[in-house]
Description:
3 strands, 211 residues, mainly alpha, 66% helix, elongated
Amino acid sequence: MQAIRTYFIKYFLSFLLIYLALLGSSHLPPIRKNLKDFARTKTGQVLNTTLPKAIFIADPQRLNLEESSSLITLAYANRAALDAQRKQQQVVAMDFQVLNYELDQIYLTGLFFFLALVLVTPISWQRKIIGILIGGALLFLINTFVISVLALEKVADSKIGIYDLSAGSLKIVTFLGNLFNNAIVFVVPVFVWAIVCFKRGDLKLLFPTSK
């Protein structure tokens, strides 16, 4: 019982304090604004790369769109239709659709969870830094997949002439979007942490009495 209490204080409480500190600091207005601007810009860049038939505008004020503090808001349209309209110099307003992402769920919570796990892991600082770099890259790739799937579902469902999916395909995309949208918060960070921070025999660092 004493050993369990020691592990609880040494690891879980430390993890909880770091995680809550990261999460709390992300809600400070200046930090929140910078995080939102960075996430929105990167999201626009990613989606314009992974879904090139659509054009994503990562500046809600450009189209007079309101954005809440908890959301990342982008506008999108059929890229070919917009280009054709520009070439013909038509003054007709383009019908942009709106796409929203939860800032905390998609971008911050999982990242902070991962960082807190790495920081309390009893390995050298060199391994921690390497783990954060590699893990951060893995989380970025997974995040790219998730936001692309969610965007594909939204674009396909909006019927704007691109990425038209059959009913069956749309159900699969919706299922994957919902699955990873939930898993990216806690499940994915734990797997990434285990991959980048542990080698064979490292269990003894957490539980010295284990054989």
